[in-house]
Amino acid sequence: xxxxxxxxxxxxxxxxxxxxxxxxxxxxxxxxxxxxxxxxxxxxxxxxxxxxxxxxxxxxxxxxxxxxxxxxxxxxxxxxxxxxxxxxxxxxxxxxxxxxxxxxxxxxxxxxxxxxxxxxxxxxxxxxxxxxxxxxxxxxxxxxxxxxxxxxxxxxxxxxxxxxxxxxxxxxxxxxxxxxxxxxxxxxxxxxxxxxxxxxxxxxxxxxxxxxxxxxxxxxxxxxxxxxxxxxxxxxxxxxxxxxxxxxxxxxxxxxxxxxxxxxxxxxxxxxxxxxxxxxxxxxxxxxxxxxxxxxxxxxxxxxxxxxxxxxxxxxxxxxxxxxxxxxxxxxxxxxxxxxxxxxxxxxxxxxxxxxxxxxxxxxxxxxxxxxxxxxxxxxxxxxxxxxxxxxxxxxxxxxxxxxxxxxxxxxxxxxxxxxxxxxxxxxxxxxxxxxxxxx
Length: 440
Ligand code: SAH
Prior knowledge:
By secondary structure, this protein is of the alpha/beta class. It has helices at 20-28, 66-78, 97-106, 119-126, 156-159, 175-184, 214-221, 238-241, 260-272, 292-299, 312-324, 342-349, 364-374, 391-398, 418-427, and strands at residues 5-9, 31-34, 51-54, 83-87, 111-114, 140-144, 165-169, 192-197, 205-210, 227-231, 253-256, 276-279, 283-287, 306-309, 336-339, 380-386, 402-413, 432-434. The relative contact order is 0.09.
C-alpha cells in the first residue's frame, strides 16, 4: 500500500461503519485528506506520523476548492506518500470521488477506491427506515437535491410516478421546492416523509411528516444539513424498525475527563449505550523515570513477602520496570500479590498472575484493615504506586511490619484542552461529567 491515492468511503458517520479495508488503509496512510462528513474519530486510528488535511465543505462555505483538493492529492502522491482521501458515505455517491479519480488518472497517479456504506442507504437503516420493502417499495432512487447549474431539473413528472423510495441528498436548502415539485406532479400529499439529520452519529435526529406538513415540521424542529430527505411509505415502518434512538443513553451528552490512555473503554461503553461523548482528559499519567527506589526494590525483590498494587497504571509500569531489568513474572514467586480492586486484579492477570487477596470493598480503609490482619512483624511489604497516594496506608502497615513505598508515576494536570473543554461546556447542554479518580 504505497505511493497511491486511496479514495475511501468512511461510511455514513458511525465510526464502526467503515469497511475493514477502509480501516486498514487509514491505519497505513501517510496523509489523510478528509472533510466534514467523515467522522474525525477515524483519524485516531492513523499512525502517529500521519498528516491530516481538513478540506471542509459545508454548503456555501467550501474550505478548499475542488481543484485545490485535486492538486493536493496529486502533489502528495507524487512525493511518494500513501494518500487517503476519506469521504463520507461512499466516495462515488455524490462525493465528487469520480472527478478526483478522473484527474488522478489524467495526471498519471495510481489510485484505488474503497467503497463505503452510503448515508442514502445506511443512514436510513439507523433511522429505522428500510429503503425497500416487499410490496411497499420495490425500487429506490437517490437524487441530488441541488444542481451546480440552477437551470437544471429532475424529470419530476416521471419521478412522481415511481413506486419506490425517493432519497434526496444535499437537499435541505431546496426542501420546499422538492416537496412542491412532487406534489404538483401528482404525488399524494399524504405521502410520508422523513428527515434524518446526522444519520448514524450519536447526535442523529429524525423528524417525520408528510408532503403537506414536512416543511413546517423542519422549521419548527430547526433541522439543518447534513440531512437525508426520504419520501415514501417505508417511512411508516420506522415505528417498528427504529432501534438507534432506543438505546438507554441516546441524546445524553457526557464529558469524560479520564486520562487519555484509559478513557477509550469508558468512551466505547458510553457510546455503545447511545451517548454523545466528549473526551477531555484532565490528567496525564507521567512515569517517573530513573527512579533509584524502584531499582533498590528490584534488587531485593525476594525479601518482599507482599506486594500491594493499588492501580492498573501501577501494575503496568511496575511490570515494565521488572521486564526492563530482564526479570519476568517468576521473580515474584516469593511474594503474595494484593490488588486493591477487580480492575487491578485483571491487570495482574494480564501478566499471568492471580491476586492472592483483594479487599471486599474497593477503598483504602478496607485495604489497610485487611492487610493489618494478614501481616506479621517479620513480613516486608512493597507498595509500587502513584505519587501522593494515601499516607495512612503506609503508616498503618508500618505499625505491623516494614513497608516500602516506591513511586512509579504521577498524575499531572493536562492543560492542553482546557479552553476547548470550556467551549464544549458552554456550547452544549452537557448532561453528565464523569470523574474516575480523585485526581481528575
Ligand atoms: N458520499 C456521501 C454523500 C455525499 S453528498 C454518501 O454516500 O453518503 C453530501 C450529502 O449526503 C449531505 O448533504 C447529506 O444530504 C447526505 N449525508 C451524508 N452523510 C450524512 C449523514 N450522516 N446524515 C445525514 N445526511 C448525510
